[in-house]
Amino acid sequence: MAAEADGRVGSSSLSAAFPFTIVAVVLRPQGRHGEVLCELLTDFPEKFAERQRVYLLAPGDVAPERAEAAREVTLESYWLPVGKNAGRVVLKLGDSNSIEDAEKLARVEVAIPREERVPLEQGDFYVEDLLGCEIVTADGTIGRVREVDHALTGSPLLIVHNEAGEEFLVPLVKAYLKSTDIKGKRLEMELPEGLLEINKPEPKAKSSVE
User: How is residue 68 annotated by DSSP?
Assistant: First the structure.
């Protein structure tokens, strides 16, 4: 069972019509000629060698207007760094030719069309396909996955809402997964005691009018 593939931490909502899969997120400039260091959100970085273009999206959910604003750019080259940046990727995009250009791309998401996703083996799944799944534990149903949040310093976070409107953050960790039924929209998990309480967002303070 794998929880990682193209778009494994793509920031998403319930819209199944969103036509892109996020494969990387720009972190910062890497070099003097517009190269950018990116966090990898795919298990198939070698596929960059086959791509001649990618799409750039501003951070956000999968609203249709966000897809419409996607910008197609040429992918001139890529390489996988070593050392402290091992596990990331450096991209040279056609419209980024200086450090100043690269700085403007910070937090931009690098995407590919959904139809270009790599076919997965039996039992594997794309994280974005978890949207709408009901999360069930031995103690009962937690709620349904409404979004998948980028978690660049760790595991992706499933943003889960229950029928009462409460929100929970559930790390997508393989060790927590017991079974997945993507077609049936059901995800069985075994979570550490107290994890939901720790990761439950603080209520937003109400503004007062004097």
Answer: H
